[in-house]
Amino acid sequence: MKPEPKDLSHYFSELTKARVPSDLKKYYEVFSREGMGNLAGGLPTPNYFPFRTLEATVLTASGLDSSAKSDESRHRQIEVPNRSDEANVLRKVDVSTALQYGTAEGYPSLRHWVRYITRHVVHGHIPYKKGPEVIMTCGNTDGFNKVLQTFTDEWIDGRSPTAERPAILAEAFSYPGALQTALARGMQVVSVDIDECGIVPDALDHVLANWNWNLGRRPHLLYTVAVGQNPTGSVVPTQRKKQIYEICTKYDVIIIEDEPYWFLQYPNAQELNLDSNDDFVMEGDSVRSDSKSGSFPFLQRLAKSYLSIDVEGRVVRLDSFSKTMAPGCRLGWITAQKAIIEKLVLITETSTQQPSGFVQSMVAQLLTGGKKDSDAWNIDGWIQWCENLCNAYQKRMEQMCGILDSGRVNVTTDSHKLSEWSVVRSSAMYDFKWPSGGMFVWVKMNYPTHPLFDEVGEEKLAEALWKYLVEKPYMVAVAPGAMFGSTNSIKKEDGFRYFRLCFAAVEESELRGITRRFCDGVREFWGLKKLPDQESVKLDAFLEPIN
Ligand SMILES: Cc1ncc(COP(=O)(O)O)c(C=O)c1O
């Protein structure tokens, strides 16, 4: 017997508690009775929508596998019709319904599909009674914001009591977009130490066990990116997830699992790391053996979600189409126990209402084809797409890391005029782990090996190097590590040692060349006997919004 999900309503914010379902909902059943002349609803007629159909040229599910077929056969037209005669709303995809006001859970056919793959295909059995529900979102940024609204009251410095200040745990280096959302609500972000496998369980326990209540409430939320962590690229192995989950249970913490990079997992990074770093050991991971994921070898390769060990219903998972389709879709979904989804529905009803009907219907048409469309990707096609996408990004990751690997050691020769001997020294200018997932390589610069280290110090070297790299002839922009520090002290004391390099953004044909330019720039920089004059380069210019 599966356990009931735990009641987490003691964490609902005051606003969440005050939200009540819309009155209209009570009448929906009456409105939808066969033959009802409905003069009650305030809906515009679809006959006056200027958009009659929606069409797009898309890639086929195998379309990213460029070796296979001609360019033409990789493309296909899809069309969302004006009206579909499909009676089952869970299979209906048409302009008249998609562009109409709809339910906050999302466009029924798309939500139904997403719910199915979440509960039965990708994550297998979710261990609490009846399993989770889903709600469509406008991407994980929107999803996270709504989850914070559900579980935290806004806190205003100088006005709200310190004892009530809400706090959220986050990886020491984390995704700044999420941290900013929490900070803007007045929350305290509490950093947890990480290593190559993500959050260190003992460190998490330590923070919670030794909480200083003078700073506010002990954190009741953990924000984590467990796959392809941004910026470090780590994947948390299942065994470690279980330890983290146990600690969260002990201290009654809700886990917010933000997984836009979920399908981009590179398990072979473990071996590649072993080849290049003798000291790197990854904890073992168990092979998935849950329901339908068994029919997809690709899914079996993937690490488990926190959802699959969530006996208490304390995991709120955020998924997004931003990285698997396109960020501009602004489309994703939240998976959580029913009582939490019900609150998220109420928040959605008074904010976004639901993601845009254009996007939902196009994506629904591509994935499900509405009514028996053999051209639709369907579940097999979606998994195939994600696998090809993963392979394509893995190739890029290997290209970048291979070049970074061969460029990391600086070899210098000191020859003595009066002797025929010369001394050859080699030192690593930087270190990095081949990422196990995602889109980023997290490079730690080894400034103590720089000849000017004693004279100018690490921070100055870091700033000078960043400026040196953006100048000709290197012209490489990398993200300064400080941007990702989850607290000001981490930004200041440790952040400057790191750069985040993204292998996803540039053209594949340019990736090697740009990575080589990075390595060349670093090597030349290590050869400098004095820092160049860099007044003209402003570091601030780089700090525009970055994902
Ligand atoms: C960890 C993480 N979460 C969320 C997002 C934003 O996702 P979305 O486009 O779905 O809002 C990003 C984007 O880079 C990210 O790296």
UniProtKB/TrEMBL annotation:
CDD domains: AAT_like. GO terms for biological process: alpha-amino acid metabolic process. Residues 95-515 form the Aminotransferase class I/classII large domain. Pfam families: Aminotran_1_2. GO terms for molecular function: pyridoxal phosphate binding; transaminase activity. Its cofactor is pyridoxal 5'-phosphate. InterPro entries: Aminotransferase_I/II_large (IPR004839), Class-I_PLP-dep_aminotransf (IPR050859), PyrdxlP-dep_Trfase (IPR015424), PyrdxlP-dep_Trfase_major (IPR015421). Gene3D superfamilies: Type I PLP-dependent aspartate aminotransferase-like (Major domain). Keywords: Aminotransferase, Pyridoxal phosphate, Transferase. Belongs to the class-I pyridoxal-phosphate-dependent aminotransferase family. This is ARAD1C40810p. It comes from Blastobotrys adeninivorans (Yeast).
